[in-house]
């Protein structure tokens, strides 16, 4: 068959008015046919035309990032100060300030550049595939491998991955917002259109980047990669991923307020200096030094890095972040609403119980199956017709595939349908032979909203088969009241054991050639039930426990039967309250709903629109909601949730598009892992703040105390450290010590704390108190060392005193950094060596400080003198004091917290 497919490796080079041609002309022009390309031709075209991908959306350009660094108000303050110092004749000081500016801009730039690259590349990792026909065979290929001429089968939820001409299908609706900004679906038709039709009105064309929201159809690829309409737009825009999150915005506000406050303080200090008899240049320099020294320049870089680390660690744990704010929102998640099938359970369905014409059967001899039920194989051997028909319907009304791999049967497609194939196979039927004998003529595909699937078959005895949720199927069957009662009782019995129950029905085809919903609206004969188990994932069980310990509620939301859902919910540790059905949700008032969502953890037979209402009800209680979804109609709920989570394997492209996070393994445990990472990121930011802020406040205080109270000798103010030295400390702290905390591992008790309050201030009372306490300690230490050393009044001793004061502050920072590695726990608990970045930072600081003290060039710039062992020991000892003091504070806080928990 495939031999007759034309073999031109090259698709035509010039763009043709595909929309004006008939479908078969398009196929011909592309050297293809309805059965699709021959695999070899497809491979040759791929080689010749390249992959169907757009040039990387590379995020903001390097220049743009650099420009952004320079737009910070802090930078203006620093530049202005530098200029002022130079104008006032304090050249060295001015240049040091300039060095601070250059260094900070560079660091900020390098870090933000790397982070934005990491973020830009991660958002593209969501894998997508397309269903194509190649030489008549259906194949799922990566969208990157599509070539012109490929015949693609599209169905609701798919992303259109290349520009295509529709060949058949009348029900297709497509959202083209990626191209047109319009979010209302456009119906597509395969008929040719006049040649002059504008792109937006070409109803027989499908464009890359758009999403199929309804229906199904077949289309042929006409353009791929950069040559698609989207490719052209992409080339124009170049793409710019914003890296602003609520946190960075909040930090921006903090930064601006701080800058303003610091400017005011600087002016006050200048006035105080002048009032005490400082010369204008000296007073101005004091003001400038305060301005520069008090600004936490390292902070923006720390935030960007912490977020970027969060994104890449989450990716490693199989959660791909599509929108950056999700990193921090994940950390404050207080309720996770999860699908059941495949997320909390394995989605490995196995039929365990069958029921036909009042008799019970079991497909195998496992211990946990009902021993009173008859083995299906035995029943078939004795010629049990009802059972045979039940199994037969399960095979025919079924899209799953079956093949043998190493002699073992393997199913592909929907696991629910796979289970039906296997139940027939293990009972001794031959599914392939059955399908050949009764070819399918038409079908109504399964959709969650409809809850059933129906097929029409030809062959010796043309028939219609229907399978689906018992409610949906029974409603279409002719059944007496007693019979219905009996069936429902059996459904309840099986579902109560956690089984998913499918009902199957059928009737003669009666001359039907096509199949519409009205053809299966009634008059069917119930064939029986098949009950299948889908065990919970063991890791989901652990993850639910972990979420509960972390104060996060877990709600299971499923399309399954209430009894099935409740039984699985119990197995997962979600309590034994009865499941609330979607229908009940729909008729509740908002107040009722509010009460119900507080208590209930299991929701069954839920339709996508109920999910939206659930999310809103939870959000109205002030909860931060993470919600999973995989279908097209889940998109609104995913968008409404604080964290929308899509499934990477089974999810539709539409749901992935609407989500903030995509799970590459569809696993519930990955959600809790991502929450843990989110908490870690936030913790590390708090740690960085708790480290950086006291340093800056301390430096400002040292200077302020000196200007206000230290004497003026021979017109020269006496200072515990020179302005350039103070700037040195600020620089070193920002470079080497601020950033490593962003790499800190998570704390032992991280997932045993309740979630962070939504909207809690970034600079909490704790950070504020700690900042003041540590700044006062640092000021006292530095001043004490200087005064002790310089007391003699000898100028050399005064110089040494200054160098010692600087070294004391640096030592102080190194020890305080160790303190900051955990907010509450002692260093021993989290492990001294668990974060190597800290020691790289400390090593760098020691090297820099040695250069500062002993390199002649730096001695000239900074006015330092080499220190001996005695001097160093004094500085180290005083610097060390912070360590036990903060540890004591932590112990007291731990005790207070334990007390609170105890009561
Ligand atoms: P969850 O919401 O927990 O992930 P789900 O999405 O698998 O569950 P649906 O797919 O909406 O739930 O299934 C709802 C019901 O439809 C099932 O309980 C089952 O009775 C029926 N059903 C599921 N799959 C099929 C199918 N392929 N054909 C016919 N009926 C089905």
Automatic annotation (TrEMBL):
Topology in the lipid bilayer: Multi-pass membrane protein
Domain Cation-transporting P-type ATPase N-terminal: 17-90
Transmembrane segment boundaries: 95-113, 258-278, 284-309, 689-712, 727-746, 767-788, 800-818, 830-855, 867-886
A GO term for molecular function: ATP hydrolysis activity
GO terms under biological process: intracellular potassium ion homeostasis; intracellular sodium ion homeostasis; potassium ion import across plasma membrane; proton transmembrane transport; sodium ion export across plasma membrane
Region of interest (Disordered), ranges: 362-381
Entry keyword set: ATP-binding, Magnesium, Membrane, Metal-binding, Nucleotide-binding, Phosphoprotein, Translocase, Transmembrane, Transmembrane helix
InterPro entries, A to Z: ATPase_P-typ_cation-transptr_C, ATPase_P-typ_cation-transptr_N, ATPase_P-typ_cyto_dom_N, ATPase_P-typ_P_site, ATPase_P-typ_TM_dom_sf, ATPase_P-typ_transduc_dom_A_sf, ATPase_P-type_domA, Cation_transp_ATPase_P-type
Protein localization: Endomembrane system
Keyword check for Transport: no
Keyword Membrane: yes
PROSITE patterns associated with the record: ATPASE_E1_E2 (PS00154)
Entry's Gene Ontology cellular component terms: endomembrane system; plasma membrane
Cleavable signal peptide: none
Matching NCBIfam families: ATPase_P-type
Entry similarity comment: Belongs to the cation transport ATPase (P-type) (TC 3.A.3) family. Type IIA subfamily.
Stated name of the protein: Ca2+-transporting ATPase
Source organism: Deinobacterium chartae
């Amino acid at each position: 068959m495939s031999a007759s497919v034309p073999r031109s490796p090259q698709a035509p080079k010039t763009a043709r008015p595909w929309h004006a041609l008939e479908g078969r002309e398009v196929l011909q022009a592309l050297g293809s046919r309805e059965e699709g390309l021959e695999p070899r031709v497809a491979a040759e075209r791929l080689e010749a035309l390249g992959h169907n991908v757009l040039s990387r959306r590379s995020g903001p350009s390097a220049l743009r990032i650099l420009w952004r660094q320079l737009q910070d108000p802090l930078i203006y303050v620093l530049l202005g100060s530098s200029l002022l110092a130079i104008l006032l004749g304090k050249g060295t000081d001015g240049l040091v300030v300039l060095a601070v500016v250059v260094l900070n801009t560079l660091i900020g730039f390098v870090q933000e550049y790397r982070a934005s690259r990491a973020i830009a590349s991660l958002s593209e990792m969501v894998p997508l595939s397309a269903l194509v026909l190649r030489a008549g065979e259906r194949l799922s290929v990566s969208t990157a491998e599509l070539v012109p001429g490929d015949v693609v089968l599209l169905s609701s939820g798919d992303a259109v991955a290349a520009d295509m001409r529709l060949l058949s299908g009348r029900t297709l609706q497509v959202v083209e917002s990626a191209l047109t900004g319009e979010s209302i679906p456009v119906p597509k038709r395969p008929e040719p259109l006049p040649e002059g039709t504008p792109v937006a009105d070409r109803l027989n064309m499908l464009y890359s980047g758009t999403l199929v929201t309804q229906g199904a159809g077949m289309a042929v690829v006409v353009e791929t990669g950069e040559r698609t309409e989207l490719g052209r737009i992409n080339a124009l825009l170049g793409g710019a991923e914003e890296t602003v999150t609520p946190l960075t915005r909040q930090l921006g506000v903090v930064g601006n307020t701080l800058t303003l406050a610091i400017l005011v303080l600087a002016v006050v200090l200048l006035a105080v200096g002048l009032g005490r008899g400082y010369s204008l240049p000296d007073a101005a320099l004091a003001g400038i030094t305060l301005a520069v020294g008090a600004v936490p320049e390292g902070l923006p870089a720390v935030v960007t890095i912490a977020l970027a680390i969060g994104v890449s660690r989450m990716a490693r744990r199989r959660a791909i972040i599509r929108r950056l704010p999700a990193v921090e929102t994940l950390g404050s998640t207080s309720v996770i609403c999860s699908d059941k099938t495949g997320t909390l359970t394995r989605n490995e369905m196995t039929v365990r119980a069958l029921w036909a014409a009042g008799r019970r059967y079991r497909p195998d001899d496992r211990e946990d199956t009902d021993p009173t039920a008859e083995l299906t194989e035995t029943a078939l051997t004795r010629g049990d017709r009802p059972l045979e028909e039940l199994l037969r319907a399960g095979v025919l009304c079924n899209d799953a595939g079956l093949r043998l791999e190493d002699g073992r049967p393997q199913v592909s497609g929907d696991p629910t349908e796979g289970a039906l194939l296997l139940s027939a196979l293990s009972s001794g039927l031959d599914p392939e032979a059955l399908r050949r004998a009764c070819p399918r003529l038409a079908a109504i595909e399964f959709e969650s909203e409809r809850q059933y699937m129906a097929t029409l078959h030809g062959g010796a005895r043309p028939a219609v088969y229907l399978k689906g949720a018992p409610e949906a199927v029974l409603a279409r069957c002719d059944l007496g009241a007693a019979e219905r009662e009996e069936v429902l009782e059996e459904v309840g019995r099986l579902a109560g054991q956690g089984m998913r129950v499918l009902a199957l029905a059928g009737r003669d085809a009666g001359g039907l050639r096509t199949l519409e919903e009205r053809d299966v609206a009634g008059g069917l004969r119930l064939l029986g039930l098949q009950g299948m188990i889908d065990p919970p994932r063991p890791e989901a069980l652990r993850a639910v426990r972990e979420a509960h310990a972390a104060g996060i509620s877990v709600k299971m939301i499923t399309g399954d039967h209430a009894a099935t859902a409740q039984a699985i919910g119990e197995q997962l540790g979600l309590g034994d309250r009865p499941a609330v059905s979607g229908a009940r949700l729909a008729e509740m008032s908002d107040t009722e709903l509010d009460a119900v969502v507080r208590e209930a953890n299991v929701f069954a037979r839920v339709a996508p629109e109920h999910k939206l209402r659930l999310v809103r009800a939870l959000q109205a209680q002030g909860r931060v909601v993470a919600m999973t979804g995989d279908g097209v109609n889940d998109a609104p709920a995913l968008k409404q949730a604080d964290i929308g989570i899509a499934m990477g394997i089974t999810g539709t492209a539409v749901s992935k598009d609407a989500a903030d996070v995509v799970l590459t393994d569809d696993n519930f445990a990955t959600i809790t892992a991502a929450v843990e990472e989110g908490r870690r990121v936030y913790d590390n930011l708090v740690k960085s703040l708790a480290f950086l802020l006291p340093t800056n406040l301390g430096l400002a205080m040292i200077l302020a105390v000196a200007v206000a109270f230290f004497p003026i000798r021979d017109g020269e103010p006496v200072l515990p450290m020179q302005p350039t030295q103070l700037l040195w400390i600020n620089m070193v702290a920002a470079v080497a010590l601020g950033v490593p905390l962003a790499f800190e591992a998570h704390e032992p008790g991280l997932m045993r704390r309740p979630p962070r309050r939504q909207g809690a201030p970034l600079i909490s009372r704790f950070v504020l108190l700690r900042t003041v306490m540590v700044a006062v300690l640092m000021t006292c230490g530095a001043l004490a060392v200087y005064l002790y050393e310089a007391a003699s009044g000898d100028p050399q001793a005064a110089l040494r005193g200054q160098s010692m004061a600087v070294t004391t502050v640096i030592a102080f920072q190194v020890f305080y950094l160790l303190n900051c590695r955990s907010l509450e726990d002692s260093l021993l608990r989290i492990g001294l060596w668990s974060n190597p970045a800290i020691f790289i930072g400390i090593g760098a600081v020691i090297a820099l400080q040695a250069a500062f003290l002993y390199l002649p060039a730096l001695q000239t710039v900074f006015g330092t003198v080499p220190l001996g062992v005695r001097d160093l020991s004094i500085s180290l000892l005083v610097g060390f004091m912070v360590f036990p003091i903060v540890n004591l504070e932590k112990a007291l806080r731990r005790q207070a917290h334990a007390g609170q928990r105890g009561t």
